[in-house]
Structure formats: structure tokens, C-alpha cells
Specification:
It is a single chain. This protein is α+β, with helices and mostly antiparallel strands. It has one domain: Sandwich (Immunoglobulin-like). It is built from 2 helices and 7 strands; from the N terminus they run H-E-E-E-E-E-H-E-E. Strand 2 and strand 3 form a beta hairpin. The longest helix has 16 residues. The radius of gyration is 23 Å and the shape is globular. It starts with a helix and ends with a strand.
């Protein structure tokens, strides 16, 4: 009887531990299209752009096509974007990117929310 009581108490304790708050669910990633342009209107090519989430999500990145366009798969939300020096050091267009775009900052951000193409303008 005593053993049965101990088993029931342990079972109830484990059950109670599993009944806490549910973890925050992340949105499923979706595919987004965008384009990078310099303030002059010219689009760089061959650069790798990285999107760092400002909320609970995974980062994303993409290589720019000839026309500066990209496709990235990320969860909806707000992201800081940057051009990492290590990934882009050998790309000629990287020399034209201001150093403020070499690391993530909230000054340079975009929102992926499903409403059209994303435009990223860099100086």
C-alpha cells in the first residue's frame, strides 16, 4: 500500500510539472522577395545580406542576384539587416557599403509581414 501511495504521489508530481505555461510559438518561416539599392538607385550584386531577428526567430540570409534582388526564408517579424565583412570581403560592391551596415543595428531594419516586396536601401 505504501509503495502504491508513493507511485501515485510521484505520478501526480510529474503531471503537475507538465501543466505549466505553454512556450511561445514561433510563426512558420515564409519565403520573401526583396531588392537592395544604393541611395543612387544602383543595385549591388553578389553581396550576402543577413537578417537578424528583433524577436524570437531564427536569422536568415541571402546572396544578391545581378539586379540586387534576393529571396529569403524567415518567420514574419522585424529584422535588422547587415552585410557581414567576413562573408563579403572579396565582393567589389562591399567597399561601397558604409561601415554602419557591417553589423546589425535597429537603425537598419525591415519588417517581413507578407505585404509585397521588401526594399533595402543602403548608403
Amino acid at each position: 500500500m505504501r509503495i502504491l501511495l508513493q507511485v501515485l504521489c510521484c505520478s501526480f508530481g510529474l503531471f503537475a510539472l507538465g501543466c505549466g505555461d505553454k512556450p511561445e510559438l514561433r510563426s512558420e518561416p515564409a519565403e520573401y522577395k526583396g531588392k537592395v539599392k544604393f541611395a543612387s538607385g544602383i543595385s549591388p550584386k553578389d553581396l550576402t545580406i543577413t537578417f537578424q531577428p528583433q524577436q524570437n526567430a531564427h536569422p536568415g540570409g541571402a546572396k544578391l542576384a545581378e539586379d540586387g534582388s534576393f529571396t529569403v526564408k524567415v518567420a514574419p517579424g522585424k529584422y535588422s539587416y547587415y552585410f557581414d565583412a567576413e562573408a563579403n570581403a572579396k565582393v567589389p560592391a562591399f567597399k561601397k557599403i558604409a561601415k554602419t551596415y557591417h553589423s546589425p543595428t535597429t537603425d537598419h531594419s525591415v519588417s517581413f509581414d507578407g505585404s509585397g516586396e521588401i526594399t533595402v536601401e543602403v548608403q
